[in-house]
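Person: I keep going back and forth on a fold encoding question. Show me how you would write down a chain together with its backbone fold. Please set it down just below, with no commentary around it:
Helper:
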Amino acid sequence: MEKTNRVVLVSGTGLEIRFNRHPKRKNGMVVAGMYEAYKNGKSLNEIAKMYRKTRQAIYDIFKARSYSLRSKQLLGLTILDGINFTLMKGGYLRGTVKGKRMTMQKYVWEKINGPISEGFVIYHKNRIKTDNRIENLELVKISLMSKKFNPKGNNQYKKDASNTIKIEE
C-alpha cells in the first residue's frame, strides 16, 4: 500500500485542494475539504461544527493523515517576575504562583503591600482589568464594591454599614 498525494481543483473556484490519499481510507475528499478550511483559518472546533463531528475527532483525523496543525496561540500572555499570566474569560490575568492559581492584581498587591485581609478585594481604579500597575490598584471592602456595582442589593455579599473606604467615580 502506497500513499499518494493528489491535487483536486474545485470547479468554478480555481481552488486547489491537496491531500494524502490512502487506499484503505474513506472520505478522502471530505477530509481534504476539512483540511483546506483549516488552512484557510477555520479552527478545529468550527470545522467540527460544520461536519457534525467533535473537535477531538477532527484533530485525530488530521493527525492520522500527518497533516500539520497550528500551534495553540496564547492570548493575552503577560510575563511578570518570570510568571506567565494568561487572559481569562472574565478579562483578568491569571497565573500559577508557587503551585497556586492567582490573579495578577492579587499577586502585584501582595508583592508590594502584603496579604489581603479577609473581606477586602482589589479594585482597578480605571476599570481596565489588565492594567495591574500598583498605582491603579486599590483595596476595597467587599460590601462597598457590592453597593457600588449593585445598588439594589441583589448580590452574594453581606451589607456592612461600617465602610470607610470611598471609591471615586
Summary: Helices lie at 28-39, 44-50, 55-64, 104-113, 142-149. The chain has two domains: 4-64, 78-149.
